Amino acid sequence: MEPRNPDDLEALREASDILGIDALLSDHERATRDRVRAFVDDEIRPHIAGWFDRAHFPVELARGFGELGVLGMTLKGYGCPGRSNVEYGLAALELEAGDSGLRTFVSVQGSLAMGSIHRWGSEEQKQEWLPRMATGEVIGAFGLTEPTAGSDPSSMTTSARRDGDDWILTGAKRWIGLATIAQLVVVWARTDDGVRGFIVPTDAPGFEASVLEPKGSMRASIQTELHFDDVRLPASALLPGASGLRGPFSALNEARYGIVWGALGAGRDSYEVALRHALRRQQFGVPLASFQLTQQKLVNMVVELQKGALLALQIGRAKDAGTLTPPQVSLGKLNNVREAIAIAREARTILGGDGVLLENSPIRHAANLESVRTYEGTDEVHTLILGQHLTGIGAFR
Hints:
With 397 residues, the chain is an alpha+beta fold. It contains twelve helices and nine strands. Residues 141-231 form the Acyl-CoA oxidase/dehydrogenase middle domain.
């Protein structure tokens, strides 16, 4: 058998799909995947190492994502694409094969901000914001996590009190994506009626957003800290349909779903870079891929990528059928992110010293996935969600 050609990426991908998972997709799903893949190849791959190195988020990509149809991708009406959850998952996979930070932009905009307005907003709010957010003209953020309340949002201290017909918002949020470039933030706050959501314009007096830096992860994206110093909001800022933590949790579940797929993209890209390097690189007079230890590493990567893809597809089909449960999403997020990090780290070892150069993606993916592992529920939180499901005992306190 002849060594595989490292320049024939399609043949390498076909060989890596040992279980024939590609055949489980419809022609329409494959077309969506290929369209997003081409966008990533043309618009992200040539630039991402420099963006990451300079800690630069290319805000001009927002309009490109809108034209691509990945902002609010599963939402229907109001100018939103209205595509299936499996299509969105495939898009998330391809976007994160480019970079976790850029896939996160799509998630914050579409799943968290747009999703909250679409599900809980008034008709006027939907008409005002969603069409322009779907095109990338307007950028939105999502404010839930606080400096002292990450995994425990029930401990949030940000509050909103009534003052006549208005609301007065006070408090702080931390690790909020996009807020310094956004026109609005969906903010969750305590009120006398429980936790409620508000659409907060970023030019409102008393609103302040600052970038959290320097970072060793997610450098091609923006994370911020927010402060609300008696921000006055009209009654129309309230999301009328959301009351209690069910509102933000429903949005988080949407974002977690995207991560189930997205992490596979980072893992797959790391594997492909390592495989092509191993086929090209000569060591002791033969390709690095000739050695048993190298083959073992590559095989272990593909085993986990194939298992993770079946898991993501099963979860996506369940979501499209309306049967998806939170423990299923937790299982997917916990497994696929954990395995993707292991793949990225192992891929780096195959690259040797060159693996620390940003021209090779595994080191960047490994760094980014440390953030992905933390946000939208840490490994520990998802473990406890699954533990509670299995035992009927909540071990959070």
